[in-house]
Design brief:
Rna Polymerase Sigma Factor, Chain: A; 9 helices; 197 residues; 2 domains
Length: 197
């Protein structure tokens, strides 16, 4: 968690303070962009940090506000990427390229890659809500504000997304065969999700 003092120092140009904010939040921003199927997630994340550096002075708030602000910027950049490709945001995630793990990756990397692949097979909005709620731990109200939907719509998207994850886990032989349950999600995903945080 980034202290208010560090945020203030970063606002006034302290590079060490900005670097600390980057170290704290960059991994989650990158996971978010990877999880919603942006092939050039690293490039988009870099642009997010350029935007942050250029507009941080106008930022007001605490660490939680900073986190929401960062993800709002990341989401807007993600939408820009989809627009620049003349693609609609609602395009199937399954058509986007799947990131391949590095050669010799260990089992935990394989689990994370597998979990990211499952997310990519969800419709984009469901994948985004599952990523924000389950993996990154945003509240329903925070997600609603980020994606400009009602809290009820976020709950429905999360529920449907988790049901679809459960179906995908079942199809992959990793969950019980109850299609109306999201319990399969909790049997296979915890380790992979923890590694994605």
């Amino acid at each position: 968690m980034v202290a208010a003092e560090i945020i203030t120092r970063a606002k006034w140009g302290d590079r060490d303070a900005l670097a600390e904010i980057f170290r704290e939040h960059h991994p989650a921003v990158l996971r978010y962009l990877n999880g919603v199927a942006i092939a050039q997630a690293e490039d988009v994340a870099s642009q997010v940090w350029v935007d942050v550096a250029s507009s941080l002075r106008r930022f007001e708030g605490n660490n939680d506000d900073l986190r929401r602000w960062l993800f709002t910027i990341a989401r807007r950049r993600m939408i820009d990427v989809f627009r620049s490709r003349s693609r609609r945001l609602e395009q199937s995630v399954a058509e986007m390229p799947v990131r391949v793990g590095a050669p010799g990756a260990d089992a935990s990397t394989d689990q994370v890659d597998w979990a990211e692949d499952v997310l990519r097979r969800l419709p984009p909005t469901q994948a985004e809500v599952v990523m924000l709620r389950v993996i990154l731990g945003f509240t329903v109200d925070e997600v609603a504000a980020l994606i400009d939907k009602s809290p009820g719509a976020v709950r429905v998207l999360a529920h449907r997304g988790l049901q679809q994850v459960s179906r995908l886990l079942t199809a992959d032989g990793r969950a019980p065969r109850d299609e109306n349950s999201t319990s399969g999600v909790t049997q296979e995903w915890p380790a992979a999700m923890e590694r994605m945080r």
